[in-house]
Structure formats: C-alpha cells, structure tokens
Amino acid sequence: MRVNKFQYTLSELTRGLEVTIKGDPHCLITGVSVIQQAQPGHITFLTNSLYRKHLAATQATAVILSEKDAEICNIHAVVCANPHYIYAKIAEFFAFPSINISGIHRTVVIGVDSRIDKTASIGAHCVIGNQVSIAKDVVIGPGCVIGDGSSIGEATQLDASVTIYNKVAIGKRTHIASGAVIGSDGFGFANQKGVWHKIPQLGGVQIGDDVDIGANTTIDCGAVDDTIIENGVKLDNLIQIGHNVKIREHTIIAGCTGIAGSAVIGKHCMIGGAAMIQGHIHIADHVMITGNTGVNKSILESGVYSSGVVGVVTNQEFKKNNARFHRLENLTQRIKLLESSLKELKEEQNK
Predict the structure, then answer these.
(1) Which of 48, 69, 216, 273 has CB 3.0 to 4.6 Å from 179, enough for a Cys bridge?
(2) Residue with the larger pLDDT of the pair 272 and 308
(3) Which residues are catalytic?
(4) Phi and psi at residue 106, in whole multiples of 5°?
(5) Is residue 77 within 8 Å of 70, Cβ to Cβ?
(6) Is 184 in contact with 206 (CB distance < 8 Å)?
(7) Beta strand pairing status for 163-164 and 145-146?
(8) Which residues are within 8 A (CB) of 151 and not within 5 positions of it... i.e. 6 or more apart?
(9) Residue 53, domain extent
C-alpha cells in the first residue's frame, strides 16, 4: 500500500475519466490499497473475479469496479468499463516520484555544443557528451551518462545510472529505469581463419514517445541503420534487444526476453517473459507469444503462439517424460512398421 500526504475527493480523482460515481462524489480518499487490506479513507479496486468474495467485507471507503460488480457493492464506487485502466489513472495521484531533483547539479559535466533547456533537471555526477540536445522538463537522475550526438525529448525521465551511448534519439514522455543501457554495440563479428574480428557498429537507436524501458534492459545500436523502438512500446526489466531490431508501436514485452538482431515485431503485440526470438524474422501485428516460447520462424498472422516445455510437473513425472522423449525416434519407426504390417494384412484380407 502507498499512502500520500494529500487527500482527494472521488470527483477530483476521476475528473476527465469515463466513469460513473455511485455514492458521494465528495468523499475523501487518502490512499490506495488492495481489497483485503484496505482501511477507511482508502480506494481499492476489483479487477479479478477471484477477489469478488472480499467486496462485502472490505473496509475501503470506495472501490473501482465494473457495472456488473456494482450491483453487489454497498460502498462508494467508481463504476467503469475498464477498472484496471481507471485504477492506473487514479493511482497516479498517490505515486511517489522516483526522482526528486530540480535544476542542474554542480557536479554535472557538460560537453561542447550541447543544448539543455532551462527547465531540465540533471542530478549529481552526470556526464553529458558533446552536441547533446535535452528538451524542456526532462529529468535525468544521478550518475547518468549521455553520449555524443544524442537527444532527449520533452518530459522524458531517466532514473539514476542510465547509460545512453552516442547517436541515440529519445522521444517525449519516455521513462527509462535504472541500469538500462541504450545504444551499446551490437553483437557483430566476422570470422577470418578461425579468428573473430569485431565489426564496427555504425548505427544508432531511435526511441519513440511514451515508451517505458525497465531496469537493466539493453538495446543495441544498429550495425549500419538504426535500431527502432516505436511510440508506446513497453519493455520490462532485463530484456536484451539486438542490433537493427524494430519493435512497432504499442507492443509490450515481459522480462528476460531476448530478441536477436534484425527481427521485426509488429504493432500491439504481447510477448511473455523469457521468450526467445530469432533474428531476421517478422512477427505480425496483434500477436501474443506466451512465456518461455522460442520463436524460430516468422509469424505472419495474428493469434496466440506457444512452444517450449509444458507446464511444471513433479520431478518424477519429468524424468519419465524425458525418458519417453528420447525414445520418440524408435517409437516412430515401430509405428511405421506396424502401419505397414496392418496395411499388408488388410490387403491380404481383401483378396
């Protein structure tokens, strides 16, 4: 639970949102909490039917829920078509800022020909390279490094210890969490007589507006052209994106996913955690890839796709299944022999 020192009325929290308030729109809300632990003054939410059983006993002052659940609600309610989204918008009022700095700290090092808007804030011990452009209302946390020729768009926030290499263009209202590395060299080597020689990575990275990039996620620069992350893309922690990958707008990717070089991911895709996507393939728009899936070929039609191991089983079951797996080739040959014998038997009977 997160509690803010401020308080708001329901009408203030929902201004501009497509909701109906059931009860007193002027009741005061001082924090948010889950439905089982909420106390008077809190607003809670019901987005999963598994928690409907807690609605009657909750101590919350108000709840965000669907019209169907509003029929069984006896407290103040924010009734809406998408409770998950409305909760996200209301929770913004009670979120603590991850960085609270103002102005440019005296320890910041700034290169030549860089342009920094007077409204930007830069924390301690940052290094800003040459010919960098930082737009208005940008916030850069302590210990960040911005490489030469990079640009950061209006109202974008970099948390502490983010590294932006050379030739990276970041759009507006983008958020990059601590430890992320944007624009480091892609994995490119040429083999000459058994020895690997590094291929210079000459491209940059383009990141659109309203992008979220999680902690310790890495996005490699392009080999020649740029790596591209389009508007509205959401990336979890610990994701590796190879050189020249293109992720199209409003795709969301969960943690520990790896995307090899030159793969193209379509619009509005959802990719589960620990998915592995081969390089030089295309994934269509509106594709869902479940967690732990290995994608080794292009997906040209929207839909849900899975591969990899089955759901968790006991170790004993796993060992049995694993043993059977290694006998598949032998079993396949035996089945072919049986089918051939059966066919011959039927032919004899039909004579």
Answers:
(1) 216
(2) 272
(3) 243
(4) -65, -20
(5) yes
(6) no
(7) parallel
(8) 132, 133, 134, 135, 168, 169, 170
(9) 2-94
DSSP letter (8 states) at residue 309: S
Residue 97 banded pLDDT, cuts 50, 70, 90: confident
Tokens 């899975």, residue? 306
Cα distances from 211 to residues 9, 153, 164, 249, 295, in angstroms, run 30, 11, 15, 9, 24
* CA R_g for the chain: 27
Residue 200 has what pLDDT?
98
Q: For 342-348, what is the mean pLDDT?
A: 88
Are residues 239 and 172 located together in one domain of the fold? yes
Phi-psi region of 344 (alpha: psi -120 to 50; beta: other; left: phi over 0): alpha
Helix (H) or strand (E) holding 166: none
C-alpha–C-alpha distance, residues 11 and 78, integer Å: 10
Q: Which two tokens stand for residue 134?
A: 């930082």
CATH number for the domain including 70?
3.40.1390.10
Structure letter (DSSP) for residue 261: T
Alpha helix positions (H), 10-151: 10-13, 67-70, 83-91
Residue 214 near residue 179, CB atoms below 8 Å = no
Same domain, yes or no: 213 and 274? yes
Question: Residue 213 and residue 65: Cα distance in Å, rounded?
Answer: 29
Question: pLDDT at residue 148 above 70?
Answer: yes
* 179 and 296 share one domain: yes
For residue 135 the two structure tokens come to 């737009």
Q: Are residues 199 and 288 in the same domain?
A: yes
Tokens 């737009």 sit at which residue?
A: 135
